[in-house]
Design goal:
Chain lengths: 336, 659, 201
């Protein structure tokens, strides 16, 4: 019994160590492609080393005690002593965790402050501002200085800090490019901000990590890091060749749906900035079809983009069945 | 109101259709069975109207085990869906519903009822009391919980399940993005369950403060009583926040208010804050009683008193205070400024300090002991290494900067399963094996128990260990599918295999309950484990009135010292006095039913009907107000007879069967 | 459960069960404090979010609020006298002051409902803005408590008439008194943080 117990314990720790050392080369968090991800990884590595030490000590102590003081056939008449504690020991194992926590706290706080800023060594480079707008279930990237817009992919110049300004047209999403750095939420009527830098040209996966309904699993985008020349060329090409987006097209785009990449030579920021607390709402409740179940009431929103009626005192509720009649194919996701 | 029956019942899914038929058949079967065996009267008088804390505890445990099955099936469905890339077993909508109900059920209808059930059963016995402070309120707590569980579980066959995750973040959970009524089930059912839990909290605070037997000062209470007490305080301090949050959710969804909506000036971040202001303390509400059970069980089977009792008490008090100060760590990535994130990083990591103290105290309780490897003790032992993994990964997640890379990934999912399964489920199993003889008068089979243990522990590790690595490789939680190029396939498959082993472990428990009920030895005496606390001074199963004469306590581990010092005198006739007990009452189950019906109507947004049904609540309250039932007395002869029976039987011929 | 009676204590504290009930109710009031604190917090966060709808100064009428405050504060005072009479075993006086309390509470409720109806007529409903949602829910929760309190007290008066002043009825009335004073305290906070702050800003 105890042998197998011990076996299990050592097995678990061995597997942990093996997997940590063996897989390290493959796991994206352990392969940073930019200074911010690298800073975070340093913190992670430090914590793993320290905590692995803690784990090994506790496991060792546990195994030793359980093995040594197990009941055996020859110690059945052993009666354990009355022992209520030991102030010295209890102080020791209060102080040691405090020291460990302090050791972890200092680099943590430093890194928290560091990743809020442009990383060291890049201060003199002017950050490229990209406005990210998340919607169900796509990512919209606007380049305000360049006046272009991409959907579900974003091209960035290498070695230059990118100042992502995040907002959402609807549900709450989380913008994450693990190879380049951490994640941050995007929320309607609010703006959050995240710096990322890529060391080299390359393609990285980015995605939403905050669950937001049926299309969540597919809500990915590509980050393509290019040399400054390639990037400038790409901007130029987009401006020359990409179509202009119309307001109707944009409104259609914000309906719940999935599609591939899109590129435009203008930006939706000319009509609406979703981070503005007073901007119009682009919600389409009647298009979220769950495919079964009892439909509930939905409520009229006088600040909705569809609301053309100026009679703002009318607060009667709209029934879903009525609105379904307008759009029998509701739920553009079903075809996906 | 014209009901469209095809929308009323969830249709179009073969799995759900099969469950609908299954549920209908088992209902009919149960009713027919009870009628055939003429058990309605027994059921009504002995169980449904009871106010006895032991029976209420057992009903809580039954509810918890049944819900464990439901939540486990949800978990298995999730694991089968993600076992291979681009699987089509469940679609996105169905997967979303399944992980939502899995989370809600496992926390609120498995962990809570099982722990509150064990609290109900053991705490009054441990403090030498005859019942809790408010027995009727206790029954009401249970029936509200049961009614909420029934309502919540109804969702997948009637009306549609909630599908916004157990956290139900707004704006997703609002009508703007979830127009069906699924999330109303969440808001209403949890409201009812929360009311029941709040009453339990109040009840146990008063019970522990006022009903301890003579000589049992606070610092002589068994550790499980201590943790139940602290948990009750956290319940009272945090559940009202959830009550408010759910009420506001209901107003948003049913009446078009603007608390968390993106329209009308609502604020989605407010929901996240309110939810976790309750949600984080909730983690400690379930973990602390489990810690208490471990303390009592480890101490019993190491045959040593708990090491560092005082520092244990200080630790749980510290944990309970810190639990209120860490909620922001659930959303470090919400764009808080660096100072806020730093503060909550530090408070969160600080929880590791009292927790570490507890782990070392447990280890040193065993040092110089004589450790008996009963199934119960195995669960307690398995807790230590597994929970340490959960704890250290918790510290990793607490480092806000690093959390930017872990947040919402499977790393996080693995972490909280490594906290909640070893930290809550293992101790619950330990407690079930430990107190089972006290509850039913027979023990759970040790051999099957060991199958249960090994299958469950190995299955658990195989299921959740791979998720740490998947998370670090960029796999996110709650995604119903992933592409083959991600390379997640092999570890996902391994994890799915683990979940099958885990399920086999649970099946072993169910089989053990069945086998032991049929075949286990009934002649086990009152103290089969040679235990240390007062509950073992009663008969097995415990007599209706718990203690013929209330014991007097001078030391910690009172029963142990009574045994050692031969203070356990046979009961003399003149000591026996009439015992006053509260009468059964129909009001709690009636209230449960009214809350359930009214809640159901509210879920369907038939507000006028719900309001009319809710009048029934006030009728029940009025009946209770006019109820001057004084209870009844157990006669001396009956007590003497009962006591003679078990005390005689307890002394000879008892098999001491601990392997 | 214990039927032991300690006659040295005030009537409502004489049995162990009574003492437990009173302690339990204090703890319940602790939970109520958390509940109202949360609602105040929500109101604090949302009170400036008018979404183009009416704001505090457009709605609040000082005179009506002062009348409401006066009614509820006085009712708390009469409740106190009622418990005082109960301690003196003066059942008649106790009931009389309790009835006064209820009338004042009823008056408060009437004013509050009238206020709400006025707002709704002005187009300020719960659906208008986050500010109004939080306003109506905070005040509505308090108003609901007052309503339940009135119903509760009526039941107590009936029991008092049926059974006279016993430890049990005394305890019930005492607990009701705690509840009523608590609602008064909550109202003081509402008056300060909702009305006064709203009118000043």
């Amino acid at each position: 019994m105890k042998k197998s117990k011990l076996f299990l314990v050592s097995l678990t720790s061995i597997i942990t160590v093996l997997l940590l050392s063996g897989c390290e080369n493959n796991m994206v968090v352990f392969n940073p492609e930019g200074p911010i991800a690298r800073q975070i990884l340093e913190l992670i590595n430090f914590s793993i080393a320290l905590l692995l030490l803690v784990t090994v000590v506790v496991f060792g102590l546990f195994a030793f005690i359980v093995w040594k003081y197990r009941e055996r056939k020859d110690n059945l008449d052993y009666e354990p002593p009355e022992e209520h504690g030991s102030t010295a020991l209890e102080i020791i194992w209060t102080v040691i965790p405090i020291l460990i926590i302090v050791a972890l706290t200092i680099p943590t706080v430093k890194t928290i402050y560091a990743i809020d800023e442009i990383p060291k060594g890049y201060e003199d480079k002017k950050p490229l501002v990209i406005n990210v707008t998340s919607a169900d279930w796509k990512w919209i990237f606007s380049y305000p200085e360049q006046g272009i817009e991409t959907v579900n992919y974003v091209n960035i110049p290498e070695d230059r800090p990118i100042d992502f300004k995040l907002t959402s047209a609807g549900t709450m999403q989380s913008f994450w490019v693990p190879a380049l750095g951490g994640q941050k939420y995007s929320m309607a009527h609010a703006e959050t901000q995240l710096y990322l830098v890529a060391d080299n040209p390359g393609s990285f996966v980015g995605r939403n990590t905050n669950f937001n309904g049926q299309g969540y699993a597919g809500m990915e985008f590509e980050v393509l890091s290019q040399t400054q020349e390639d990037f400038d060329q790409w901007i130029k090409d987009v401006k020359e060749t990409a179509p202009k987006m119309t307001l109707e097209e944009y409104e259609k785009m914000l309906e719940p749906s999935h599609f591939g990449r899109k590129t435009f030579s203008n930006s939706h920021l000319e009509w609406v900035d979703h981070s503005d607390p007073h901007s119009k709402n682009y919600t389409n409740p009647e298009l979220y079809d769950r495919g079964h179940g009892w439909p509930g009431k939905i409520f009229e929103d006088k600040n909705n983009y569809k609301y053309k009626n100026t009679d703002s005192n009318n607060s009667e509720t709209m029934n879903q069945k009525d609105s379904e009649a307008e759009d029998p194919n509701g739920g553009g996701h079903s075809g996906h | 109101m014209g009901i469209k029956w095809d929308e009323f019942f969830v249709t179009g899914d073969p799995l759900i259709f099969a469950s609908q038929i299954g549920i209908a058949l088992s209902l009919v079967g149960a009713i027919a069975g009870i009628t055939y065996f003429k058990k309605w009267n027994y059921l009504w008088t002995e169980w449904l109207t009871t106010v006895d804390h032991k029976k209420i505890g057992i009903m809580y445990i039954l509810l918890g085990v049944v819900m464990f099955f439901r939540g486990g099936v949800d978990g298995l469905m999730m694991k089968s869906q993600t076992a291979v890339p681009e699987n089509e077993f469940l679609n996105a909508q169905h997967y979303n519903e399944v992980f939502t109900t899995h989370g809600v059920i496992m926390i609120l209808f498995v962990a809570m009822p099982l722990l509150i059930g064990l609290m109900n059963f053991a705490v009054p016995l441990q403090i030498g009391a005859r019942d809790v402070a408010f027995p009727q309120l206790n029954a009401l707590s249970f029936w509200l919980t049961a009614s909420a569980a029934a309502l919540f579980n109804l969702s997948f066959i009637i009306g549609g399940s909630p599908d916004a995750g157990w956290t139900s973040y707004f704006p997703l959970a609002g009508k703007e993005f979830s127009p069906g009524i699924g999330n109303n089930f969440y808001a209403v059912a949890l409201q009812i369950a929360g009311a029941g839990t709040l009453m339990t909290g109040i009840n146990f605070i008063v019970t522990v403060l006022k009903m301890r037997t003579k000589g049992m000062t606070l610092m002589k209470m068994p550790m499980f009583t201590w943790t139940s007490f602290i948990t009750s305080i956290i319940i009272v301090a945090s559940f009202p926040i959830f009550t408010v949050a759910l009420a506001l959710m209901t107003f948003d969804r049913t009446f078009g208010a603007h608390f968390f909506t993106i329209s009308g000036g609502g604020m989605d971040m407010l929901w996240a804050n309110l939810f976790w202001l309750w949600g984080h303390p909730e983690v400690y509400i379930v973990v602390l009683p489990a810690f208490g059970m471990l303390s009592d069980i480890i101490s019993t089977f190491a045959r040593k008193t708990l090491f560092g009792y005082k520092s244990m008490v200080v630790s749980i008090v510290l944990i309970s205070v810190l639990s209120m100060l860490v909620w922001v760590h659930h959303f470090f990535t919400m764009g808080n400024n660096a100072a806020v994130n730093s503060f909550f990083s530090i408070t969160t990591m600080a929880i590791a300090i009292p927790t570490g103290v507890k782990v070392f105290n447990w280890l040193f309780t065993m040092r110089k002991g004589r450790i008996k490897f009963t199934t119960s003790m195995l669960w307690a032992l398995a807790f230590v290494p597994n929970f340490v993994i959960g704890g250290v990964t918790g510290v990793m997640l607490a480092m806000a900067a690093a959390d930017y890379q872990y947040h919402n990934t499977l790393f996080l999912v693995a972490h909280f399963h490594y906290v909640l399964i070893p930290g809550v489920v293992f101790p619950i199993f330990a407690g079930l094996y430990y107190w089972w003889p006290k509850m039913f008068g027979y023990m759970l089979n040790e051999k099957i128990g060991k199958w249960h243990f090994w299958l469950f522990v190995i299955g658990f590790n195989v299921t959740f260990m791979p998720m740490f690595f998947l998370g670090l490789d960029g796999a996110v939680r709650r995604a119903y599918t992933y592409s083959a190029e991600t390379g997640f396939g092999p570890l996902m498959l391994l994890s799915a295999v683990g979940s099958i082993i885990l399920a086999a472990g649970f099946a072993a428990l169910v089989y053990n309950i069945y086998w032991s009920a049929r075949h286990a030895d009934r002649n086990i005496g009152n103290d089969p484990w040679d235990a240390r606390t007062l509950e073992w001074a009663t008969a097995s199963p415990v007599q209706q009135y718990n203690f013929a004469s209330l014991p007097e306590v001078t030391k910690l581990d009172a029963f142990w010292h009574m045994k050692k010092n031969n203070e356990l005198q046979p009961l003399s006739e003149d000591e026996v006095e009439e015992i006053h007990l509260p009468s059964n009452t129909w009001i709690p189950i009636y209230m449960g039913a009214v809350f359930g019906i009214s809640g159901f109507l509210l879920v369907f947004e038939w507000t006028i009907a719900a309001g009319i049904a809710a009048l029934g609540i006030f009728v029940g309250l009025a009946f209770r107000s006019f109820d001057y039932d004084e209870g009844f007395h157990v006669h001396k002869d009956e007590i003497s007879e009962t006591e003679r029976k078990w005390r005689k039987g307890g002394n000879k011929g008892v098999k001491n069967h601990v392997s | 459960m214990s039927a032991k009676v300690n006659a040295a204590l005030p009537l409502e504290y004489q049995t162990e069960q009574n003492r437990m009930n009173i302690l339990g109710f204090w703890i319940f009031l602790g939970a109520e404090i958390v509940l109202f604190a949360t609602l105040f917090g929500v109101y604090g966060v949302l009170s400036e979010r008018h979404a183009g709808g009416p704001g505090q100064s457009d709605l609040f009428i000082v005179k009506d609020v002062l009348i409401q405050t006066f009614l509820l504060l006085t009712s708390s005072f009469t409740m106190g006298i009622s418990i005082f009479e109960m301690r003196r075993s003066n059942k008649k006086g106790m009931l009389m002051w309790l009835v006064f309390t209820l009338l004042l509470g009823g008056g408060f409720l009437f004013m509050e409902i009238r206020e709400f109806i006025n707002y709704v007529h002005e187009g300020a409903t719960m659906q208008t803005s986050a500010f109004l949602s939080s306003f109506f829910v905070l005040l509505g929760t308090h108003g609901l408590h007052v309503t339940i309190g009135i119903g509760w007290a009526i039941l107590l008066i009936i029991q008092m008439l049926q059974r006279g002043l016993t430890p049990v009825t005394a305890r019930k009335t005492f607990i009701f008194g705690l509840y009523w004073h608590f609602l008064d305290v909550v109202w003081i906070f509402i008056f300060t943080f909702v009305y006064l702050r709203g009118l000043v800003m």
